[in-house]
Prior knowledge:
This protein is of the alpha+beta class. It has one domain. It has 9 helices and 15 strands. The chain has helices at 30-47, 52-64, 109-119, 127-136, 144-147, 150-159, 223-228, 231-240, 245-269; strands at residues 7-16, 85-91, 97-103, 124-126, 170-175, 181-187, 208-210, 216-220, 299-300, 303-305, 311-319, 321-323, 330-332, 341-343, 348-352. Strands 1, 2, 3, 4, 5, 6, 9, 10 and 11 form a 9-stranded mixed sheet that branches. 54% of the residues are buried.
Amino acid sequence: MPDTTPAILVHGGAGNLGPDDPASFGTDAPRLLGVREAARAAWVVLAAGGSALDAVEAAVRTLEDDPTYNSATGACLTAAGDVELDASVMDGATLRCGAVAVVKDVKNPVTLARRVMERSEHVLLAGPGASAFAREVGIAAYDNALLVTPPQRARWARLRNAAPSGHGTVGAVARDRHGHLAAATSTGGMAMKRPGRIGDTPIIGCGTYADDELAAVSCTGHGERIIQLTLARHCADLVGGGRSAMEAAQEAVRRLGARRARAASSWSRRGARSDSPITPPSWRGRGRGRTGRSTRSCEARERLESSSGTRMARCEAYFGSFRDDRNGSSMSSGSGKTMVLVFSVEISMSVCM
């Protein structure tokens, strides 16, 4: 029988934010508060009996509207100085999925991705075609300039002559009271990317995957590397082969690092160099890890960061019950086995099983 304990995991991305980033440090850091708000928004849906698909959309929409993250408002800019957005969703119960890429005029691309899944015969729409479809299904045009924040414009001006760099992605995975899974991911991609570049986020099986018989996965990291290994599906298949969520995520990220290191060695022998080396992973999940204390089975709430402090990811996970510290209210929906959220320094992966 499938586990029917509702659960939500949310990640705010892994990227080179810099040690002086004011949004990243302290117990009240905006990047931490933002994922908590996203988890709360999703939990309200699940506690009321809503679907996992509704929950992940609610979580990701919350992060898309928060300029702290690289996913819609506040997304990093392309080399041309504007915003191009990618997003995807997948329903583990039916294997239906939808995605959009290179979208410039939508406030919440994750909602457009869901419309592609539910109201078109396609899986992925990109560029002007995705924008035209958005108008057809009643999603209003949103000025690209409104997606650009002053910090991102200043960053663009500073990096105009620099190589593309990572800045994170947001995502969520959920299980509802019927045991169904869903996943959603949204991103602005890499800072200073070429216009038209598409990473792993809108490619089903790479950045997002959900199957009730396997797992739900949302990834963030270097999209080109993730695509090469179809990482989300690979991780789900590991769960299907008997691995726990923790073991599957660890093995998937380990394999990514090993293949990257092998490629870097090959490039070095040919006189080339890697522009995005995989750094040693920093794990967080069941039991003790390098980043902190063990989680409780009913509730996990942690900030994760690398030992260097220059790369970090923030996440929030609720399992079985959630207490809102702001007003003392509580919601409960039973208990069950521990959920695991695993992050590494270079790439983060949420796994729900």
